[in-house]
Structures are given as C-alpha cells and as structure tokens.
Amino acid sequence: MLQRILPERAFFLGLLFERAAARHGGVPVTLDRPLDTFPERGTDLNYVDLADIIDDLAARLWEAGVRPTERIAVYKGANFDISLTVCAAARIGAVPVPLSPALGGEIVDELLRRLDRPWLVTDADKLDGDLRGVAVSELTSGVLLAGTRAHASGRSLTDLDAAPRRPPVRLHPSQPALITHTSGTTGVSKLMVHTAQTLFHRLLPQQAIAWPVRGRERVALCMSFVHSRFFHSLGVFVNYGNPMDILVDPEPDSVGPIFTRTRPGLVETHPNNFIQWEDLVDAPGAPLASVRYYSTTFDAIHPRTIQRLLGASRRKNPLMVQLYGQSETGPISGWWYTSKSAQTTDGRCVGIPLPGFIRVRVVGSDGRPVRRGRTGHLEVRSRGRVLTYLGEDERYRGQLNGSWWRLGDMGYLNRWGMLFLTDRDIDQIDSVDSNLELEDVLLSRLDELLEVVIVASPSGEPVPVVATRRDAPLDTERWKEAVHGLPPLAEPVQVRFTDLPRTSTWKIQRVQIRRMFEEGTLPVIDRETVAG
C-alpha cells in the first residue's frame, strides 16, 4: 500500500498538494489566520485551493526571474504561506531555504552570505524590523515581497497576478531540493542540504507509523513552518487525505476555541507547546476531548504533560506518540504511551530505534562502542541524513565517525534496546548525573511549573531557572519540599515563560540562558514585586 501511495523513492515538495488534490479532491483545511499574501482567500480552504495557490505563487516567482537550481530564502512573518512559498519555489525547480521568523537580523545576515546571493522572499515588516541595517540588496539576487504592504526595497508578489501558469520542474532526486537550518541552540544556525531522496527516506517511516490514522482523523498541526518535520507531517497526512487544521498561534486561549469547533482527532506540536496546552485540560468546551492521538518530536516530553493530556481525551484508548530525532538525520526512535503506561514512564526514554530505517549505537570518548546500559555519545546511521552543512563541510564531516553520525546527545541503550537520553554533551554538570532527569522530577512534583532549566553557574553550581503558569510567584516552601532528596541545587531563579530564549521549535536555548545568567542579563522576576 505504501508503495502505491509513494511510487517514487523521492519526495517532491512542489507536487505535494497537486497530487493530493488529484487523489483526494477538496479535503478541507482550516487556518487560524488568513494567508499574508492572499488574505482574500480566508481561513476555510481545501487541497484544491492550496494546490492552486502553490501553482499561482510558482508562476509569480518565475515571472520575477527565479530559475531552477537557484536558491531562494523565505524569511517573513510567521504564517502558513511560508510553507506554501517553499512548495512553490520547489515547483519551479528552485532550492527553497525557509528561515525562521524568530531569527535575528544578524543571524539572517550571516546565513544570506553563506547562501551566496540567493533570492529573498520577505515582507515589509521584516525589512523595517529585523532586516533594518542588513544590506539585503547586496546580499541577494533580488528581494520579493510577501504580504500586501509595499516596500521600496522589493518587488511585491501581489503585483505579479497576471503571471502565466507553468508546468512543474523536477530536479534529479539526488540534487539539492531544500535547505533548512538547525535550531541554533548552541550559536549561529547551520544550513542543512536535503535532496528529494533524503527527504523520502525520512517520510517513509513516518508514513508507516501514521497508517492507522490515514484519512480517518482530522489532523491539527501547530509547528514551525520552516522545519523539515513540518513538511514531512504535511507529506504524511496530505498523502493520506486527512482533513487538517494549520495553526500559527500556540497560545491556549487561541487554540482552545478552534479545537472546540473543529474537533481534531490527532494534534501535533512542539513539546514545550504541549506543556502550555495543559491549560486546555479543564478549558471550556473540552477542546481536547476529541483527541485520540497526540504526536510530538524535537525533544523528549515530560511525563506529567503526557498524563494530563491523555487524561483530557474522551476517546477510547488515547495515545501519545513520541518521536526523537535530529534535524540532520530525521526521526531516530519512537514510542507510544497510554493513560496507564504514562503513569510509570521514564521521561528520559525516547523509545526504540526505528527498525529497518535507523541504526543507533553508544560509544565512549575513544569512539568505540560501549556495553548496553553504559552512558556514552549517541551515533546513528540514517539514509535520511543531510548531504552537508552549506559552507561548513569540514564542520559537517567533523561529526562523522566513519559512516556513523555523532548526534551530540549523551544516552544509553538498555538491555531491550530502548534508547534513553541523559544530556547534551555541552550541558553536562559534574555534580548532576542528568540535568534532564532532574528537571523531569521537579516538573512532576510542582504542577505550577511550566519550565525548569538547570544550568551551571560560573563556579559549576547547578542553578534552576524556572517559569510558572501565568508567571505566578514561586512558592518557596513548596520548592523546598520539591528539592528534598535531590542533588544540592542553588536557589531558583524565576523568569517569565515568554522571556526564556527559544528556537523556532520552542527548544530552550540553554547556552544562551547560561550566558545571560553569567552576564547578569537574564530578565529575572523580582519576587517581591510579583508578590505585591
């Protein structure tokens, strides 16, 4: 069946919705906000509409001068038309480079330099904001404006409405087809080069995992529009013909009313957004009552969050499906949790390596495999691994150990082959066996915590940086009870949840937090002020 759905060993983004529309027709797709460039289309669309929008955008890009194999960066305000523009660029054989709207101008400046004069699709707000001071005319082959507001620095796509439609251009499956960037948790993002073949090898296991959901459940996606995972989620569910909700705003107050109206059966977002969505458990209208499947990747998810979300579903036997992976490799391992198993789950367990698709091993500092149960550096083999880091091939090859790829995570495989994460290599603290495990314990003991991140002080002391629900003051007595029996920790430092530096996939930027703490620039909440 999978071979019939995916007849080619390649995933062509430019043909995704066209093929889905031909196969499934006008399957509904609901947005939480109109597209910036086509606001007149509204928020209630379908596969046919989206295929037409992509075809239209592709014609406009061609009319503007974009040609096959040319790179085209997409850096604009957060909205689903980021992904549609990527598909449109791929449709004419260009190589799209989606850049997170959360990236600062200085990082975009550096990435544009690495891309060697790409085309740039942006908007007037970015040009007046993050890109102010960036020499976009010198760094690009041309600036094209998304949205409806004009700007002197670029040519508006809305003005190219008479552009004739064109047949699609397909590059060879082994040629660069998409360039995404890493999360940037440790500095300037790296640019990763994908081909239609490597994208396919990531799509295939995800398509197999989603087989029980094919066409049957409404799917809600609230994820970074620039991450390869989002395009694969689209690929999975559009191939299967599932109705969809595509959401920009992850705030519970925004998500709740939409879920109450559309009643999705599967929802996917980032782990740290699921923590926020715990507020939906008791929300009016029971917005999570219809959810049979919760899906997440990017990071391990806290057991408390799993239990609360599954408990909010009124479906029979709801599941939390978790994938662990890396931007460079795609999905690595996976597991599922039921309401019963979630009560005893170890938050550091990220499942079993995907059989038939991925191989995982644990090695010591000498690069040699260690015994089962021993903690070491995680390495994988994957046919979905990116070709290189654009402009940083030496850095890319520095993570190779023969044919094995060093993930940068520490962990172990138990006797049954289950994979456990302990820490990132660079986040280890001598006095703590696992920062991540300690954070899980604190979150399980204190429901009021939205986030806790343990970083090392300049002297090496573990410092908990915490954020609470609605930024309520941390109860010091409850904190003392929660840390009883744990390794010695410094006094907690409280910040607002929205002030925690994050990546486009809501991952915590631990290195940035540590740096800000050392520099005294972390925006700490004054407890007395908050309490007053």
Automatic annotation (TrEMBL):
It holds the Pfam family AMP-binding. Gene3D superfamilies: N-terminal domain of ligase-like (3.40.50.12780). It comes from the Bacteria. InterPro entries: AMP-binding_CS, AMP-dep_synth/lig_dom, ANL_N_sf, ATP-dep_AMP-bd_enzyme. PANTHER family: LONG-CHAIN-FATTY-ACID--COA LIGASE (PTHR43767), NONRIBOSOMAL PEPTIDE SYNTHASE PES1 (EUROFUNG)-RELATED (PTHR43767:SF1). This is Acyl-CoA synthetase. It comes from Thermobifida halotolerans.
